[in-house]
Amino acid sequence: MLQYIPVREELFSPELGTYVSYGIRAVLASGKEAASVSDVSPDFSFVQRLADLCTSEQLSPIHLHDVVEDAI
Fold first, then answer.
1. How far apart are the first and last CA of the chain?
2. Do 48 and 56 contact (CB within 8 A), yes or no?
3. pLDDT tens by residue, the chain, 72 residues
4. Displacement of CA 51 from its chain's centroid (Å)
5. pTM
């Protein structure tokens, strides 16, 4: 079973300086990372809802980038 989890990231941009954003990581039952997307959104609630949806639908990790792109 795959679990999608939000990941807090501290990132840097020349325009913004240091900022906090959240990515999504797909984790296999073994604990191994299957896929990840960095810097999805600074809105934790949005990323949490998207991660929960991906988990409940058991999204294939190969589609994670596309789903994130469509969601934002």
1. 25
2. no
3. 899 999 999 999 999 999 999 999 999 999 999 999 999 999 999 999 999 999 999 999 999 999 999 999
4. 6
5. 0.89
